[in-house]
Amino acid sequence: MLNVVRADDNLPVVFLADRMTMQAGCHAPPAVTTLTREDCEDDEDFAERTEFGREFRIVPAGVHHVHANLSIGNLGLQEYAAWPTTMPKGSSGPSEQPTPEHRGDH
């Protein structure tokens, strides 16, 4: 699927409705970056931009916030992926503020 959406330069991230999204109580979809190594200057740039992984789960209410900020370049996916969570492991939400004791395992 990522091969199909990578053709669109205006899609820095896709949100998926997978089994976990549909079955978990919070319905948190994964946000998956379309970034590839070829999109980056070098290996170091790619490693920095994917430091916290290539995907994370987000509260449904945060999908628009993430998409809008990525579209205008206000924040990068790596910044969202680095945010702590009170959602299931690997989830994030735009209203949460980073605190060391809530850092997720990414």
Q: Which structural class is indicated by helix and strand composition?
A: alpha+beta
Topology order in helix (H) and strand (E) letters: HEHEHEHHE
The count of β-strands is 4
Strands ordered across the widest β-sheet: 1-2-3-4
What would you report as the Rg, rounded to the nearest angstrom? 13 Å
Shape: globular
Low-confidence stretches: 86-106
Q: How many helical elements?
A: 5
Largest sheet: 4 strands, mixed
Give the averaged pLDDT, no decimals: 75
Q: Percent range for helical residues?
A: 25-40%
Question: What can you tell me about this protein's structure?
Answer:
With 106 residues, the chain is an alpha+beta fold. The chain has one domain (2-93). The chain has helices at residues 2-5, 19-23, 43-49, 63-72, 77-82, and strands spanning 13-15, 30-33, 55-58, 91-92. A 4-stranded mixed beta sheet has the order 1-2-3-4. Residues 86-106 have low confidence and may be disordered.
